[in-house]
Each structure stands twice: as structure tokens, then as C-alpha cells.
Specification:
The protein is mostly helical and about 300 residues long. The protein contains 13 helices and two strands. It has helices spanning about 5-10, 20-30, 60-70, 75-85, 95-100, 115-130, 140-145, 150-155, 220-230, 235-245, 245-250, 260-280, 290-300, and strands at about 90-95, 305-309. Strands 1-2 form a two-stranded antiparallel ribbon. The longest helix is centred in the last third of the chain and has 19 residues, at about 260-280.
Length: about 300
């Protein structure tokens, strides 16, 4: 799929986009609803100011997102989505080519940035690279770049954001009150099912997170992209990609009853990655042209030239 065609599909624009300038005009119009006085790039931003959902210019947008998300992410819905994407589609394109599509996409669930996901990807990757320089950690740099690429689900396959982005959590068992905006689970049908409302619910103790039906989103989808395309990323990288949005686990210490030994061993890597995913959002906007050569080289090292999506 050519980039310009994919961009048209991602936006739902009528008629082909004729050139790069027209594409830029479209993006500016699409996101003009954001508060023009809010600037997410602030290198002086304090850590405690991140994920502040209340005192935030994006509060209503984020709150509405989680309301829909929590009411609809049920155990049966997740199983349906798992089956739908169990085998990746016939669409093929390179990883960098797919990443360019995320320059069209702003995450409605994120209280800390209104930059495109491509910019966030480069911010995260460069933050990792700064702390972990050297070839032995180049896989970690690449994780920073691709960790959110599962949002391809919204860009191209047109899945709604409520089932693509945001924090993730287990379905099929009791919803933790440590989940952001947990009050909205009151209208989730699963809370009326006794067998899905206990600490273990549909699972056995220490069954392992790979056996758990996590709320459907970009984490699981991108994990499947990596595995089904036989990427050469190590297991630490796969855990970061699959569980980086599982804040109730890696931040709040919830759902430990579902974890097996491997999950607990990998937890420290997911926690380590979180500092780059979260705190890099206030960094200066990266220069894509300068960084493209380095990251395309990493992609070639760890992924095939064409990837199934």
C-alpha cells in the first residue's frame, strides 16, 4: 500500500490527497480543536505532573474516552477481538512506512500530549537511547520507537480509539479500583456476572498473564505483529510492548495473583521502560529526518523488509 493511499484510508478523506502540502493542511485542520494555548513540550515539567487527569486541559476528552472504554471492554468483547486479529491481515508494509502513518494519529486517552504518535515514538526512542547507549541495547531503542505502533488499528483498520488506546487491564475477573476512572465500570455488563467478578474470575492462580484476556488494544496487537512476523526482539522487549499500558500492574501492583514466575521476572523491565514512555512526552520535538537513518537500520536488523499487519 502506498503511503498516500494509506493516509487517505486512515483519515476517511474523500478524494485522494494530492501532495504533501495538502496532507499537512489536513492534519492542522483535524487537530485544531485542541487548546491552542496548551504546549505539551516542556522540558521542565515535573514527574508528578504527568498522568494528572484532573488538572488538565484534556480532562473532558480523556474522561469521555475512559467512560466508553470501561463500559464496553468486556470479557466476551476481548475474545471476539482476539479471534478477529488472531491471524494478521494481508496488508504488508515496512515498519518505518507503517510508522509514518502514525503521524496522522493523536491519542485521545493521553493527558500529557497532543503530538502525533510518530513524534511520541521518536521522543521515547531517543530517551531510551540517551540512558542506554551502545549496540547491546539497540533492541531497547527500537522498542521505544515501535511500542505504540499497534495504534495502526485505528489509523488503517479504523477501529475506534476506545478499543485501541488507553491503559489496559484484565477482563474476566474483578476490576481493580486502581484502574483510572474505575467508577465507569458500573455499566460494564461483566460486573453482573458472578463468575467474572472475583479476584481470579475465569482464571487459575498464577496462570500467567499470557493466559489473561487483557482489555483489547494496541499493546496486544503490536505484540502479535512482532511474534507472527518472527522479529528478533528479546523476551524483555516483547513484555514491554505487550504490557506497557498495564498501569494497574506495573505501577499499582495489582493482579499479582494472575502472574507466574516469568511475569514477575519481566516486571522490572516493563517498569524501567515506563520512565521513557511517560516522561519523554515533554521533551523537544525530534528531527525525523536526522533520526530516520539510524532507526531504519535497527528495523532492518530485527524485522523483515515487509511486515504483515
Amino acid at each position: 500500500m502506498r503511503i498516500i493511499e494509506a493516509k487517505k484510508a486512515a483519515t476517511g478523506a474523500s478524494g485522494p490527497l494530492k501532495n504533501v502540502e495538502e496532507w499537512q493542511d489536513y492534519k492542522e485542520e483535524k487537530y485544531s480543536a485542541e487548546n491552542p494555548e496548551w504546549n505539551p513540550t516542556d522540558p521542565e515539567k515535573k514527574k508528578e505532573a504527568f498522568r494528572n487527569y484532573n488538572d488538565n486541559p484534556r480532562f473532558e476528552r480523556v474522561r469521555n474516552f475512559y467512560k466508553v472504554n470501561h463500559e464496553n471492554q468486556t470479557y466476551s468483547f476481548v475474545q471476539k477481538m482476539q479471534q478477529k486479529y488472531a491471524k494478521l491481515g494481508s496488508m504488508e508494509m515496512g515498519v518505518w512506512e507503517a510508522l509514518e502513518l502514525l503521524d496522522t494519529f493523536v491519542d485521545e486517552s493521553d493527558p500529557d500530549t497532543n503530538l502525533s504518535q510518530m513524534m511520541h515514538a521518536l521522543q521515547t526512542a531517543e530517551a531510551v537511547r540517551k540512558k542506554y547507549p551502545g549496540e547491546e541495547y539497540d533492541w531497547y531503542h527500537l522498542v521505544g520507537l515501535i511500542h505504540d505502533m499497534g495504534k495502526f488499528l485505528s489509523c488503517v483498520y479504523k477501529e475506534e480509539q476506545w478499543c485501541t488506546v488507553g491503559d489496559t487491564f484484565p477482563t474476566g475477573c474483578k476490576f481493580s479500583d486502581k484502574i483510572e476512572f474505575s467508577e465507569f465500570f458500573v455499566k460494564n455488563p461483566d460486573i453482573k456476572a458472578p463468575e467474572l467478578s472475583t479476584e481470579l474470575g475465569a482464571y487459575s492462580k498464577n496462570c500467567g498473564l499470557d493466559k489473561v484476556a487483557m482489555s483489547w488494544g494496541h499493546d496486544e496487537y503490536m505484540y502479535q505483529v512482532c511474534v507472527q512476523n518472527e522479529s528478533k526482539l528479546p523476551i524483555q522487549a516483547l513484555y514491554m510492548i505487550r504490557y506497557h499500558s498495564f498501569y494497574p500492574w506495573h505501577k499499582e501492583g495489582q493482579y499479582m495473583q494472575l502472574c507466574n514466575k516469568q511475569d514477575l521476572e519481566m516486571l522490572k523491565w516493563v517498569q524501567d521502560f515506563n520512565q521513557f514512555d511517560l516522561y519523554s512526552k515533554a521533551a523537544e520535538i525530534p528531527n525525523t529526518k536526522e533520526l530516520k537513518i539510524y532507526y531504519k537500520k535497527l528495523i532492518t536488523k530485527y524485522f523483515p523488509a515487509k511486515v504483515r499487519w
